[in-house]
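JOB MANIFEST
job_type = single_chain_structure
chain_count = 1
residues = 431
[input]
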Amino acid sequence: MKFPHRKFLHTAVFAVCAATLGTAFAAPDARIAALAAKEKPALLETLKDLVSIESGSRDLEGLEKISNLIADRFKALGGEVELIDPSAEAYRMEDTPEKMGRVVRATFKGTGKKKILLIAHMDTVYTIGMLNKQPFRVEGDKAYGLGIADDKQGIAVITHIVSMLQAMKFKEYGTLTVLINGDEEISSPGARALITRMGAEHDAVMSFEGAYVKEDKLSLATAGIASVTLHVTGKASHAGSAPELGVNALYELSHQILQMRDLSDPATGLKMNWTISKSGSNRNVIPASATAGADVRVLKVSDYDRIEQQVNERVKKQLIPEAKVQLNFERRRPPLEATDASRAMARHAQQIYKEELGLPLGADDKAAGGGTDAAFAALKTKAPVIERFGLQGFGAHSADAEYVLVDSIEPRLYLGTRMVMDIARGKTAEK
């Protein structure tokens, strides 16, 4: 099968011609452009291998298989590879499994000083057996497969960036670290502590979630995600003959929801919305239990403290003193907040795309939907952390439409490789 890369080569020729005519465009680095073209069919084969392994977040057998494959790839590239079980230091939420998929950490030692972290995740939202109906395939400019956009393309792009750096014998970084997570789709309960530590230990973090098909851009900010769960315990009694002997958990739950319905703050982007509830067992029985859940979104880490304090204060005001009310506030993901350092690094990436490839690249510092491991990496550092260095894609979490654009492979390999080289050389920070 031939994998066309004419679009990228046309861009390179255009950039060269523009430079000759004295415009703002510069010629692409010929070595990197040639290697990106060479790696394109190999990357598609890597995608096929990754997509052909089912690796749902709770599928430990599948996660073990894919983590072994990833580990072997980075060992073959000369990395010091560890397979880390993150279960022991997991942040336990209501839906956290006892054991989580392993993290693959590959370390490449260089001759320079800068420490660079590349991150992606191997787990998907799909259940065992779905692969049979959705095998990997390429149709025109689209490569399809379950988990291909979210986030197996990220693993493949990182793998082939490292391959390109090795082919050029580039080692001007101090340490190049690759971290591939196995529990991202369930809010990274196991890997979050490791990702946070690693983020603080590196000078720059590039995260390889996919870019968008309709709007190719990097993300500098994402919303934080939390949940509030209310459990109310009352006392059952016959609703017709002795309702006064019961303690109506539904009444108390309704009171709690109503008194916490106004905690959203549009001025700061804080959102809290009650979304699910359940109570009782029979129409003619005073409900002895009731539960409700709320979704919380924040744009700043500090807003977590504020909203958690508010709900804990409100819940103390009960309608029925005899009812037992339990509130659980879970910080599922912190927000990724845009910083001056990340804006400067994003502008450098945009300059490469525009001047060397003749392509537009956005860099959005408004919080995008969906959580990201980049937010954990940024939690304890002032170093630049940027999301969406991966391929352009579509259909994440869908059962039949997930794909990546084949024509985005070479530009993204070029960009990722150039960024690693420039970060290593200290060229991405504005003076």
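[summary]
Residues 1-7, 10-24 have pLDDT under 50 and may be disordered.
The two ends are 47 Å apart (CA to CA).
exit_status = 0
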